Batch of 3 targets.
Target 1
Amino acid sequence: MKDIIQKANQTSSAVHNRRLAVQLLRHHGALSRQQLAQITGLRSSTLTYIVRELLDNQVVRTIGKRKSNTVGKKQVLLEINPDLGWVVGVGIDRDSMSLSFLDAAGKVVGQERLVTGHNADELPGLLADQIRKWADGNDETMQNLLGVGIATPGVVDYKQGTLLKSTWLNAENFPMGRLVSEAVNAPVMVDNDANFAALAEARRGSARGLGTFIYFFVSSQQRGEVIQIYGLGSTYFLDHKLYRGTHFGAGEVDALLEPSPSDSDNVTLEQLAVLADLDGQITPELTEITSDLATTMASVVNLIDPEAVILGGNVSIANKQAVKTIESVINRTIVPLPNRFVEVRASTFVDHGNSMGAAIAAIEAVQIVEGEPLPVGQIPTTAEKPTNGNGRSRQVVRELQ
């Protein structure tokens, strides 16, 4: 029995370490064996075996040698093989659908947007048709589709791919993941739109390098000639991991903290343009609106105590004055602590943020090496060593110098 347990642990560790190498190459870009060993702490012999196996299976490929000023043999660089396949991320917005297509190495190979309705029942078929249309027009095959990520408004059981409740899509317990997976014959992961948008910021945007941050998803809606800023959702990255809550409802703050829409929340298209303009001149009305948003945000910041706040959503708040106003109000409102200062940053992704995050999640979870997929939105940060079955020892990853 001990031999069986030990063998199982060794197999599990081998799978984990192979996946670790793949994810690090995708996260950092091209790396040499020596750099991989430096980051993971794996023995050279172990890493050589892993790399040889990944090369044999065409998961990775060599792309030349690392530049160096030192004398001696140059290190061969490795990268994910982009020809291994492709993924698509889907961002379902209020009146449209955003799609981001990535190759296996994570490079964006296409983006588009199409108008949609608010009926969840129609989305799986519409989405499958659009994916096939893109593949046909870009010399890709559906057989090479590695996975699909879907970012949707509402509360989502991401483990089952079920939309538990979405007011906007008028859906409850809707099996979005299963229906789309059956339509495209590929793995599908589904999550809340703010969660995937925050993942895009963590991997490739304004939150890159942060361990703990809050992503605020600010929403607007046009009613006739009136535009209201009324919704506020949030996503929490805690210690480099996406936190969803016990019932997948973490971050749904507007029902409790955000007041109902009023005349003071109304904005014009011109004002929205000013909020999106880095150097636009902020009016007193916009200062009042952003200050009100910041007061609500401060309540959440007090609970989480993050390093930074990222401003995202379908309202682009990139204006330097507006960002500074929000930052000032938050830090003036939260509980004062020694050396405490919460930075506020504008989102990197003005458009396609939720679909980019969904595509990144699909890339990270896709099963291109044997073993079970990773939890969505979580990259491995340690190399595992086999033990005698009483537990697993871990080595903390050292940052690449």
Target 2
Amino acid sequence: MTAQFDLAVIGGGSGGYAAARTAAAAGLRTAVVDGARELGGLCILRGCMPTKALLSAAEVLHRATHPQAWGIRSAHVGFDFAAVMERKDALIREFAEYRQEQLAKGSFTLVRAQARFVSPHEIALSNGGSLTADHFIISTGSTITHPPLPGLAATGCLTSDDALSLSSLPASLIILGGGAIAMEFAQFFARFGVAVTVIQRGQHVLRDFDPDAAAVVEEVLRREGVTIHTGTELREVSGGSGNKSVRFLQAGQEVTVSAAEILLAQGREPNTAGLELGAAGVAAENGRIITNEEMRTSAPHIFAAGDCTGKHEIVHIAIQQGEIAAHNVAQPTRTRRMDYRLLTSVVFTEPQIGVVGLTENQAQAAGIPYLAAAYPFADHGKSMIMEARDGFVKLLADPHSGEILGGACVGPQGGELIHEIIAGMSKRMTVQELAVLPHYHPTLAEIWTYPAEELTAKIPATSP
């Protein structure tokens, strides 16, 4: 049978659900097509929520085993890894069941099948049916990248999905990659007693962040016992169960490291391989669906949102993209556009990194003039009380107007503290305004006033 809709959303994760909800609220006859084994999307099932649940457990364990700075003595502190994983699983079940209920009871039709385009307005379904629609929104997310590394397939490795479902901890672990996923897993496993080695191709971990921010996290992980190799060129993986090796070049020398297991943490790629995008006239580049700021693809009636567009693999961005795509389908004469000025990224290691707007690397690459000022947590009252002395906050400002162009927080609760700068930038706040904004004392948040005051002193005052 063939069903006709105003809009069909392919994918029921965070971006797809946001799109369907928005479209249905606008009165469009909407379908959500999702053939995944389990509904919920990457964030809930295998991404943000389970990893942060595990990192939270690791932080509790780390504090319990390192209380000396506060003058506290602790007896032997142990853990039950099965209980740690069960808590994570229980949380994910709760989150997933709520999303599944939203999808099943929403004011749209849920179709449980895989989809592929057979023409610009028709998709074939894996259940044998088909569906036609005036418009489509593709929100199929991403999948794990498998690099063509000699010996990796034969030797075998863990993926991030596998790491989230372990029943026991490996004695030792090699992590391939140096991005946010790699750093978060490195700290989690190290804090649970696993001997962790990270192998990163670039000269620094967390290459999407400014080097000063990445250096803080790298220093802390090294201090916690993680071995980090940077500036490497991977050559080969070998070995078998319980004894696996990675051979690589570093500074012109061949190095081999071994561990009980290998974790592949080199990122994800758009999940678009089975969609037959060419049949719909949708252009893609290396699997990434190309969109404009209205989230419209090369086929004017087809939009895309979330990780399958490949630009920013961030949940709140996927939700915004889905909502904007659905609005533009429903209101073609009053279209909206994505604004990435407030693009935010967070790494949930301890210390956390939270960044919004321009980084210094980005400003320099784009030739954007700016002034920058930073202030360390090691010299801030509340963080000293908390024994959270690693890291800093940094502000970038327009050298003439003082408007805040970007902010970075590397330190305690950095993912929370960055929201003060997000709020300020959303209203085009200047560093002069931030410097005089009342902050309660003693709090972590008041640290932002110090770089704001430094920048205010450097920017010529303007006449009222």
Target 3
Amino acid sequence: MSPVEVVANRVVWSLVFLIIVIVTTRSWVKVLQAARSRRNVGLLALAAAFLSLNWGVYVWAVISDQIVEASLGYFINPLVSVALGVLVLRERLRIAQWVAVGIALLAVGVLTFSYGRPPWISITLAVSFGVYGLIKKQVGIGSVESLTIETAVLAPVALVVMAVIAAQGSAGLASGDPVITILLILLGAVTALPLLAFGGAATRIPLSTLGLLQYITPVLQFIIGVAVYHEAMSSSRWIGFVLVWISLAVISIDGLRHSRTRVDDLEVTEPD
């Protein structure tokens, strides 16, 4: 199946799954309240565009046996978020964060030499998801409500894509293979559950911990690419990935220290 068809199914079945969640939890009121704001809908439509770009590039990377490069995109995503904080939100970087960004740029240079081109898949995935997160931060509504609006905005386009592919006689849902049909329908839950869990975790655990947990995804992607699909890893690519991991270690340690300092300061200033 083409990446376009996979993404179209992902959008539609995600919306179906979210509708089931909303009906079960009786949270229609919250969704409708969020959808009344033109600002919310406009920003979430823009977020949906970046999310669909992210999904499409990732699916294409997997289909074309470039899982390792895709994993790199999610490794450097936290660094892109830091850069967006500086460029868009005018945040100031600490010294350790500047060091981490510098090491990451060096890593991109090494990987560009290794691949013979810039790692466009990684950069596109990191930037698209970073911008998506930035827009979601600006909206500031619940994960169920925001994701429902995003998929609802994309659903008409996705349905048209699915209809065109079906008219051509090559739709996966019309293949007659029950396994493919089940896998396509499961795209909804597989897509929505992690995003909903992320939204819920963001309000329940420290941000520094949440940031570290996000490295689990690219680590698993990297292992699958190397150990399962046996993608080639030259010495220069290993050097590039090691530099990225060093950069992430620097920024993670700095984030943990900074969060602990803030907690200590709050405890000191807290009245008896």
